[in-house]
Amino acid sequence: MEGFPPIAASDARLLILGSAPSVESLKQQQYYAHPRNSFWSIVVSLLHPATEELGYNERTLLLQQNHIALWDVMRSCERPGSLDSAIVAGSIQTNPFNLFFTKHPEIQALFFNGAKAEETYRKRVLPDINNAHRNLKRFRLPSTSPAMATLNFAEKRGQWRLLLDYC
Fold first, then answer.
1. Mean pLDDT value across the chain
2. Residue ranges making up the domain that contains 34
3. Residue 94: inside a domain, yes or no?
4. How many Å apart are CA 21 and CA 155, to the nearest integer?
């Protein structure tokens, strides 16, 4: 599995990081394409409270207009299916974060979409990060995946409101 390039304007101030694209996301070539993944519903409801449905391009533009970048920690990995628990640990290749942070110097905070993204960043990226970017604020948010069913939509959205403090 090969991931996607980041969605990021040069003036991005925060970066949302997932682990790796799902099977459905790879099929559609879109971040968070699974219809039951609540990522877009949560983020759009926080940033654009109007009721009209936004297409994928409009949603990605909405992120950029609010100084939000979106990427995955993993550039590639082996994973049968879409569950993070199925990722083969030895297959993980991370994205080039030092280069990303150089191109996006205004990044102030990282928001992880779930535990696997945060764990992989902490273990595999953080040790190699330039000192200037090592102390960025980091927040783990509940996964928007349908596999994370211990919280309902409102509870997840309530925790994701933290984004608004950094937009």
1. 95
2. 14-165
3. yes
4. 23
